[in-house]
Amino acid sequence: MKSLVCLKQVPDTETQIKVNPEGTGIVTEGIKHIINPYDEFSVEEALRLKEKFKEGEVVILAIGPDRATESIRTALAMGADRGIHVNDPAVNTADPFAVAQALAAAAKDVQYDVIFCGHRAIDDDFCEVGAMLAEFLGLPQVTLVTKVEVAADKKSAILERDIEGGKETVEVPLPCVVTSQKGLNEPRYASLPGIMKAKKKPIDAKNAAALGVSVEAKLQSKEYSMPPERKAGKKIEGLEPPDAAKQVVQALRNEAKII
Amino acid sequence: MSDGLDYFNESHHILRRTVARFVEREIKPYVNEWEEAEEFPRELYRKAAEVGLLGVPYPVEWSGFEADVFHEVVVTEELIRSGSGGVAAGLNSHHIALPPIVALGTQEQKERFIPPVLRGEKIAALAITEPGGGSDVAAIRTRAVRDGDHYIVNGSKTMITSGVRADQVTLAVRTGGPGHKGVSLLVVDTHTPGFSVSKKLRKMGWRPSDTGELAFQDLRVPVENLLGEEGMGFYGIMHNFQKERLHLCVIANATAQLALEESLKYAKVREAFGRTLSGFQVTRHKLVDMATLVEVSREFTYRVAARIQAGENAVKEISMAKIFSTQVCDKVCFDAVQIHGGYGYMREYLVERLFRDSRILSIGGGTSEIMKEIISKMML
């Protein structure tokens, strides 16, 4: 069972994000990075499929600057076999369209039964790359997947996906693109022996030229801004409880417009 | 925690993530419960072993991992971030129990005594301290008398980390005359008749770590469990002191760091006289002083760790780092409680525990006074 896992490195969820003074991006100084959590589900699922079928390969494909190798290496330490690192300033910070183009180009050299993407990256939250990648490759896609059952002949899979208020079960021919949702699995640790083995696993570095793509971004980000600070609450003081309650109801109705 | 730029590379970062996740999943949710129970489940050893955490820094044939000193630093730092020094100390008791076996043991002994501990199947403890005296290793009185192919051991030990639950104890005994040359090390299977736990000790801090008083009455230990030769025990014990002290420095810095972080969080939300605590200059300056101490102490410890990593003799510096970092930890935890006010004295607040956990650090692994004696001998 061969899987290609698209992986993005994102700021740690515990990092405090600040917009830089120019408003062109976030302050990257001193920020720690992690594997996008949805991509971690993908890595885990791909590893489980390889283990279940007792054969195959898990290839990690990531786009990003030099530091992204750490995330690829982490996935290799979890048990993936090799990595492809697309590192090109033209692509690293490009929009989802350009990123999907580059991923599609890189995927052409890889054999796979399934391509896994996180259903979204927790940094820019576009939720677009998986879908676009499937389109560029002409593959069926199933989004928000929480369960994967691949048929013994690897020609199809039964997938469970999140829908509003419930689950939908679909059957899809392989190869296909699956986007991972929370609940798919509990990712394993990069164990210590795994970390050591990962040091020797290959990571193939590529730029846009090597992939033969000239990416064309459709979006330009204009400005980043922080959400407005929460305003201080209003205190109603010095009244008897029945009067205070009336004031609260009034405020909720007329000012907050909640009731 | 900010990394010293030169000290940590990719494998350290990945390891840090692994340990942090282990702590988040397997320790943090239960810490309060374990603190109250003064115990953590044995199962935790096995879980930690599955990830490989117990194996740092043992030879790759048993651990599957080639570690340097900074991998050890990472594991200790992240375990302390669980908020329970006691869990960290209990889980790591083999880091004082096994090194004498690594240093003095034969290949057969290593094969017999080390892998089961790293697999989390056996708990290992080191027993040196006796009720009659603590820091004076050369004066131990527990006696082992040769009888054919066994030693017969009589005596007692106290304040033994993991002593109550240990399956295997690296035991300092007297086989010869007085002084350090008469000290030997035996590895004892605690399930042998004559070995008993006389008491589980109750402590101010580090509560989930089991601490025991042990008694030996005609305990028969096979001679093949003697480490090295008779009289080499003192060397076997001293051999690891540098590392043990380094870990105590790391624990002190990480504990202080946590106390600082808790204080920063609290100062930003707690209001008094119409503004947050951080709105008062006196609080802000106190926080800056705390942060400065932690930063300086951590950098010095890292520097000493790098020297140990390079194989240098850093006995003087590690002793200085132990005095300094544990003092910093005491001071920072004290101030953290002060910033928290009455709440800092309450069990629900982490700083209350950190304050208690800090107190052992200038005592265990050689008191600050002993450290000063060591340093003064090297200076004068």
Summarize this structure briefly.
The complex is a heterodimer of chains A (259) and B (380). With 259 residues, chain A is of the alpha/beta class. Chain A contains 8 helices and 11 strands.
Mind explaining what this structure looks like?
The complex is a heterodimer of chains A (259) and B (380). Chain A is of the alpha/beta class. Chain A has two domains: 2-211, Rossmann fold, CATH 3.40.50.620; 232-259, no CATH class. Chain A has helices at 37-53, 68-78, 89-92, 96-107, 129-137, 192-198, 208-211, 241-255; strands at residues 2-7, 9-11, 33-35, 57-63, 82-86, 114-118, 141-150, 156-163, 166-173, 176-180, 203-206. Chain A has a nine-stranded mixed β-sheet with strand order 9-8-7-10-6-1-4-5-11, sandwiched between helices. Chain A has a two-stranded antiparallel ribbon with strand order 2-3. Chain B has 380 residues and is α+β, with helices and mostly antiparallel strands. Chain B is globular. The longest helix of chain B has 29 residues, at 241-269. Chain B is built from 16 helices and ten strands. In chain B, 50% of the residues lie in helices and 16% in strands. Chain A binds chain B through residues 30, 34, 69-70, 73-74, 77, 189-196, 198-199, and chain B through 2, 10-11, 13-15, 17-18, 21-22, 50-53, 55-56, 60, 63-67.
Give structural attributes.
heterodimer, A: 259 residues, alpha/beta, Rossmann fold, 9-stranded mixed sheet, two-stranded antiparallel ribbon, 8 helices, globular, B: 380 residues, alpha+beta, Butyryl-Coa Dehydrogenase, subunit A, domain 1, Butyryl-CoA Dehydrogenase, subunit A, domain 2, Butyryl-CoA Dehydrogenase, subunit A, domain 3, 3 domains, 4-stranded antiparallel sheet, 16 helices, 10 strands, 50% helix
